[in-house]
Amino acid sequence: MADKLHQNHRERVLEKFRRFGLDVFSDHEVLELLLFFAIPRVDTNPTAHRLLERFGSLHAVLEAPVEQLCEVQGIGPRSADLLKLSFAMCARYQQDVAKSERHSDKLNSYEKIGEYFMPQFAGEQDEVLLAAYLDGVGRVIKCEEIARGGHAHVPVDAYKIASGALICHAAGVAVAHNHPNGTATPSEADMLATRRLEQTLSGLGLQLVDHCVIARGKYTSICRLRAGQMGQRR
């Protein structure tokens, strides 16, 4: 009967976490939840309270040496290892985010977009369309192949691109396709497809950052061309 009560309690706590995250948990509840994964079929709430009473705060618990953690009633080597692993994962997460901030591609200029896409078409004999989904500052969240055609045409599937961007929670999209046997000069069909894609994305609150045409180690930015044409008209 006691095991069933503990199991039901654990399920309620886990469901609370799934629905609301850790923001609604007190510090002792965070520890109680974490200890579920090291201590089966035992009420971990008293152990969580003992940890906080001994060390004074959540961060102090996570920073405590294994030997001191094991001095707390209810904490064995497995539980201590889990607490230390959780602390190490937090540090590793912060390091990875910092690394991503320093080294991630930020496609925030026409030049950077062209340089980003060009190597991805090296050796391609077919016409291929790629889409890079970007966050609010131009970092690449994901880049994927949208379509592959023959030697002269590839369809620009605006709805597939928009769907991919929404799934990634992107703020903008940069796309590129190649002309395997031609030049990097956009065709009329390329210009029309760009306008249609831009309209589709704009209707969803997304920005088309650029559409590049790539051929023989060179690239042309359609959005830059259009900006120049508008400037000339003025």
Task: Describe the overall structure.
The protein is an alpha+beta fold and 234 residues long. Helices cover 52% and strands 15% of the residues. The chain contains 10 helices and 5 strands; from the N terminus they run αααααααββαβαββα. It has helices spanning 2-20, 27-35, 45-55, 58-63, 66-69, 77-103, 110-117, 158-167, 188-202, 222-233, and strands at 128-134, 140-148, 172-178, 207-215, 218-221. The chain has a 5-stranded mixed sheet, with helices on both faces. The longest helix has 27 residues, at 77-103. It is elongated. The chain starts with a helix and ends with a helix. The relative contact order is 0.08.
Descriptive keywords:
5-stranded mixed β-sheet, disordered C terminus, alpha+beta, 234 residues, 5 strands, elongated
Secondary-structure-based class equals: alpha+beta
- How many distinct helices? 10
Rg estimate, integer Å: 27 Å
Mean pLDDT: 89
Distance between the termini: 81 Å
Low-confidence stretches: 230-234
Q: Give the DSSP E fraction (strand runs of 2 or more residues).
A: 15-25%
Form type: elongated
The neighbouring-strand order within the major sheet is 2-1-3-4-5
Helix content: 40-55%
Total beta strands:
5
Topology summary:
Layout: H1 2-20, H2 27-35, H3 45-55, H4 58-63, H5 66-69, H6 77-103, H7 110-117, E1 128-134, E2 140-148, H8 158-167, E3 172-178, H9 188-202, E4 207-215, E5 218-221, H10 222-233
Parallel strand pairs: 3-4
Antiparallel strand pairs: 1-2, 1-3, 4-5
Helix pairs in contact: 2-3, 8-9
Produce a short descriptive summary.
The chain has 234 residues and is an alpha+beta fold. It has helices at residues 2-20, 27-35, 45-55, 58-63, 66-69, 77-103, 110-117, 158-167, 188-202, 222-233; strands spanning 128-134, 140-148, 172-178, 207-215, 218-221. Strands 2-1-3-4-5 form a 5-stranded mixed sheet, with helices on both faces.
